[in-house]
Amino acid sequence: MSITKNVKWSKKDLLSIYDLTAEEINIILDTAEEFKKVSQRNVKKVPALRGKTVVNFFIEPSTRTRMSFELAEQRLSADIINISASTSSLKKGETLLDTVRNIEALQADLIVMRHSAPGAQSFIAKHVSAGILNAGDGAHSHPTQALLDIFTIREKKGSLKGLNVSIIGDIVHSRVARSNIWGLLKLGANVTVAGPSTLVPREFEKIGVRVCHNREAALEGADVVNLLRIQHERQRGGFFPSIGEYSRFFGLNADAAKYLNPDALIMHPGPINRGVELDSSLADGPQSVILEQVTNGLAVRMAVLFLVAGCLEK
Question: Would residue 44 be called left, alpha or beta, if left means φ above 0 and alpha means ψ between -120 and 50 degrees?
Fold first, then answer.
């Protein structure tokens, strides 16, 4: 491996894509490229975090992100502790900060944290010396999901500059959409967001995003389309009339896919509501990179763990 600890990384935490420069995003992507090679070897481990303790502190439930982080930590040879809200002292009335300070007192080096409150990780990062990695905070930020999406696009297309990327679905409640938007814009992509007007407000135009409420307009000429999962509670909340109507007007099916560029990538952060956001024929088709996103997520999370841990040693 050509990875060294001389890379120009100076952040002790990874809290949001908004905080990163284009150069820093590319450092993560370049580092992830090297770590992806590790997973393709017969022996899939490196000693990069040997002797380091990583705590996975998930206050909000997660399957994919937690599994990906934990496997990344194992591949880096870290010591791992898993804590969930149901098994922590938060259930006994302890404050979040006190819980994290107790975790740090056990000489934890890195804390991977997921929380339902926007900004929770940023608040904690100001009060502890351990590195904090944001694994999702409310509807605010999910930096590693955006990084793995961007990594996948760069891997397939070579560069993001000038690409037309459309994100379709519940933009207003989506931490994935927000993080992707900032990352894509910083790397020079043209971003379109689309969905029902209740889920895609015009305010996103203020940051240079094209907003439309028509599926075909969003898909026409797109190099990449990222379909967001529709949460059923949104339908119950009256954001759109029914799941069937959402699928009819904003789901990606074979007819709608004809508006895409022939070599367009089809993406989804998972889990997929098949037949709602995306038809099975496309989810499993040749343009889909959904499973590659999962694979690349492991490399990206290895990269950010490695970079943050290296910064703490400086």
Answer: alpha
Query: pTM for the full model?
Result: 0.94
Domains and CATH numbers, the chain: 22-140+297-313 (3.40.50.1370), 143-293 (3.40.50.1370)
Q: Which residues of 87-105 are buried (b: 16+ CB within 10 A; e: fewer)?
A: ebebeeeeebeebbeebbe
Convert 31-46 to b/e letters by CB count within 10 Å (16 or more is b). bbbbbbebbeeeeeeb
* Cβ neighbours for 88, distance < 8 A, ≥ 6 positions apart: 57, 59, 94, 99
Rounded Cα distance, 102 and 81, in Å: 13
Return the bridge partners of 190, or none: 164
Please return the burial class of 77, using the count of CB atoms within 10 Å of its CB with bins 0-12, 13-18 and 19+.
Answer: middle
Nearest to 67, CA basis, from 82, 87, 77, 79: 82
The amino acid occupying position 197 is S
Closest CA to 145 of 252, 306, 298: 298
Question: Which residue, among 86, 60, 81, has the nearest Cα to 70 in the 3D structure?
Answer: 81
List, in sequence order, every residue forming a beta bridge with 135; answer none if it has no partner.
Answer: none
pLDDT digits (tens, 9 = 90+) for 174-229: 999 999 999 999 999 999 999 999 999 999 999 999 999 999 999 999 999 999 99
Residue 63 sits at φ, ψ, to 5 deg, of -115, -60
**Dmax (CA) of the chain:** 57
Start-to-end Cα distance in the chain: 21
Q: Residue with structure tokens 């690409």?
A: 163
pLDDT at 235: 55
Contact residues for 115 (Cβ-Cβ < 8 A; gap 6+):
59, 60, 96, 121, 136, 137, 138
Task: Name, in order, each residue with C-beta under 8 angstroms of 161's C-beta and a sequence gap of 6 or more.
Answer: 187, 188, 189
